[in-house]
Amino acid sequence: MPELPEVETVRRGLAPVLAGGRIVRVEQRRGDLRFPFPPDFAARLAGRRILDLRRRAKYLLADLDGSETLVMHLGMSGSFRIDGDVQGFFHHPRDKSAAHDHVVFHMESGARVTYNDPRRFGFMLLVPTKELNAHKLFKGLGVEPLGEALDSAFLARAFKGRAAPAKALLLDQRLIAGLGNIYVCEALHRCGISPLKAGGKLVTVAGKPSAALARLPEAIKKVLEEALAAGGSSLRDHRQADGSLGYFQHSFRVYDREGAACPTPGCKGTVARVAQSGRSTFFCPECQK
DNA sequence: ACACTATCCTGCAGGC
DNA sequence: TGCCTGCAGGATAGTG
């Protein structure tokens, strides 16, 4: 569920409560999410200060005193909620099943931060901070899509010789880390590239990026930045940490809009939906070639 | 190496 | 109303 804009929105919402704060107690209400929790997980967190709350790809990283980092992934349905006696945050009613409240962080400030995850595809683990980059989850991760490393030359190298469709390549976290189904569909529509097109065919023989590929990095960055400004997209689960909804879903041009008129100016096409590797792809066959 | 699938889990929408 | 099927923002292990 949460792609980069949603995870970053969560990070920004949690940072005022977590970063610099001390964890006094952690309630861990089950033994596993996607994976088992680390041994003595709750006990190892108790009493520790969170030095910084960062994001890499779709991971939230809480650097703790004692040189360990709490790594958190929201999977498809994970979310955090802040409540308790916190100045600056309203107390919003529980609108999700408490049965899926799996972890509660009790902060010294009085804030409670609750992790809810119905599908339990999310996970948490503890990694020594200096070993993070070498950790198996992180060492193969691709570039941050909002960083300078993502440009047309990078994409030309990444796509060269690849038979896989553009959609699959953009979803591959080993190339670009942070995109998911929604923003890949939206970015490809914005630059007029068909999600079905083989990656290699978007690169010219001379090795220079094609015009279409040259537009792709900007399309990716723009859609992510617009989504960030909107607090992410709220379809089913995503909420900002203060409980408010993201609203970028109202700005989708193709995602979940099968049958709608293509919003590209002058285009007479209709948004289509196809399955690619078992997942829905939305695109306009008229203006995405 | 690469491409594709099945799979983890729950909730919800749509069809009958 | 209820039962059934399929689908959902992710990522990996396993297959050919």
From TrEMBL:
FPG-type domain mapped to chain residues: 253-289
InterPro entries named among the record's database cross-references: DNA_glyclase_Znf_dom_DNA_BS, FPG_cat, FPG_Glyclase, FPG_N, H2TH_FPG, Ribosomal_uS13-like_H2TH, Znf_DNA_glyclase/AP_lyase, Znf_FPG/IleRS
Keywords: DNA damage, DNA repair, DNA-binding, Glycosidase, Hydrolase, Lyase, Metal-binding, Multifunctional enzyme, Zinc, Zinc-finger
Protein's UniProt keywords contain Membrane: no
Cofactor: Zn(2+)
Catalytic activity: 2'-deoxyribonucleotide-(2'-deoxyribose 5'-phosphate)-2'-deoxyribonucleotide-DNA = a 3'-end 2'-deoxyribonucleotide-(2,3-dehydro-2,3-deoxyribose 5'-phosphate)-DNA + a 5'-end 5'-phospho-2'-deoxyribonucleoside-DNA + H(+); Hydrolysis of DNA containing ring-opened 7-methylguanine residues, releasing 2,6-diamino-4-hydroxy-5-(N-methyl)formamidopyrimidine
A Pfam family matched in the record: Fapy_DNA_glyco
E.C. number(s) listed in UniProt: 3.2.2.23, 4.2.99.18
PROSITE patterns attached to this UniProt entry: FPG_CAT (PS51068), ZF_FPG_1 (PS01242), ZF_FPG_2 (PS51066)
One GO BP annotation of this record: base-excision repair
Details of cofactor binding: Binds 1 zinc ion per subunit.
Keyword DNA damage: yes
GO MF annotation list: 8-oxo-7,8-dihydroguanine DNA N-glycosylase activity; class I DNA-(apurinic or apyrimidinic site) endonuclease activity; damaged DNA binding; zinc ion binding
Domain spans labelled Formamidopyrimidine-DNA glycosylase catalytic: 2-122
Residue positions binding DNA: 100, 119, 162
Active site residues of this protein: 2-3, 58, 279
Protein's job: Involved in base excision repair of DNA damaged by oxidation or by mutagenic agents. Acts as DNA glycosylase that recognizes and removes damaged bases. Has a preference for oxidized purines, such as 7,8-dihydro-8-oxoguanine (8-oxoG). Has AP (apurinic/apyrimidinic) lyase activity and introduces nicks in the DNA strand. Cleaves the DNA backbone by beta-delta elimination to generate a single-strand break at the site of the removed base with both 3'- and 5'-phosphates.
Subunit and partners: Monomer.
Family membership: Belongs to the FPG family.
Protein name per UniProt: Formamidopyrimidine-DNA glycosylase
UniProt organism field: Methylocystis parvus
